[in-house]
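Session log. Operator J.P. requested a structure for one protein chain; no other inputs attached. Running the standard single-chain path with token output.
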Amino acid sequence: GDGRRRMKRARAEDACDSDARLGEFLAWCAMEKIRIAEDYVRIESHCAEASCPKDGVDGEVRRHYCVRATRDIPSDTTIFVIPKTSLVCANNSVSGDGIRDAELGGGLALNACALAERAASLQSAQAPFAGYFSILAKYGEQTLPMFWDETLRKELRGTELERHLADDDEAFREDYETCIAPLLDEYPEIFPRELCDLAAFKAVASIAASRAFFVGGKYGECLVPCADLFNHRTGENSVAVFGVEDSSDDEDSDESKDENNDGDDNRELVIKTVKFIKAGDELFNTFGSQSNASLLHKYGFCETHNEDMVTVTIDVECFEEAYGKEFMHAIYDALKAKTSDADIEVFEDGKYFEIERNGAIDDEFLRFVTVVAAEANSLKLTTDDGDEYITSESILKRVLDARMAKYGDLSDLNEPVSEEQPPAGGGLVGLAAARLVRRQEVELLRRAQARLLG
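Structure written below.
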């Protein structure tokens, strides 16, 4: 009841008061002339034993932050005004020249810049962005699957996310070796090797993945202090960011404006409410419509009520697992001889077919199944079960069964899991999140089986 809510609020205030890093950040905001509507909102600092692991070997406790209304807030109320000079980006960083000389752009440029500014902040409390980095996870957003051990990653077996993680691991190593390591050699004072190793690069990449905003103009991809304090909740957006520029490459455009630009001559980002907010409610900045797999991949959490964007794909690998590589290679050779480009691209271009929310799969997939059946019978191919005549229906069953098999033993999906939640923003993390992603995909695939096979 009300008494329990008051106790919860009191604990939050105690956590805020005892969080020295939040104090450092707020002092830095004042120095940077970031304006906070303190009459309307409070930045809260939270910690919970279960979901706030030690932030690395130094034993610091991981804090989570949120923005909460201290009174009723009308729509169109300004909550934060953020000068663009306070954004973490190559344009505002001493690392900018090196990043531009290396011709790095987009997210990679931001990662390199954040790596340099993190190193500077660890070396000196007087570094330009030290106050901001004081509230960021020193060793990265550890709830992201990119940091999970092998045991926890196995909980994602068969999911679309499992494949992305394997690709990410390789991409991190390649980006570091080809783009970041040369900066360490060329600019050792800005990129000190002992603070800019691969682990540090992954740490800042995880922070950028979960916090970056595209501001445009000469700023491009940025970390935006205060804007990244808002947590996500699907369907409950509270604020909008104004002052984002149209172009990412027009550095000389001083009046580039769009319909969301209410900034001071485009030198500021302004965050305003987009609806009435009740006193005591948390304010959210929704990250857009995303599947739980996407939320977990980029932000490290899932939502139990988020069911609209589940994705399961079927590619040629599913056909190969259903019938064997030799069988499908024979089909490929026959199609290639006929220059059937639309069908060959399934083999050569990594094309895949998506299962829709209602279990349907697009007509192109069904046509491809029919083509495979026709070619198999024309070539007089037999299955490992000895079937000499292959129907489209039998292919559908085998392929969907092969896709389901990727999820492995499904009995664990019914096992109770402690639904660990981060203390700010809500949602599920860790094992509970992995199981939710896998369960939702399995349920979607079962709908496809029921729809297509009866």
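Operator note: Residues 160-186 form the longest helix (27 residues).
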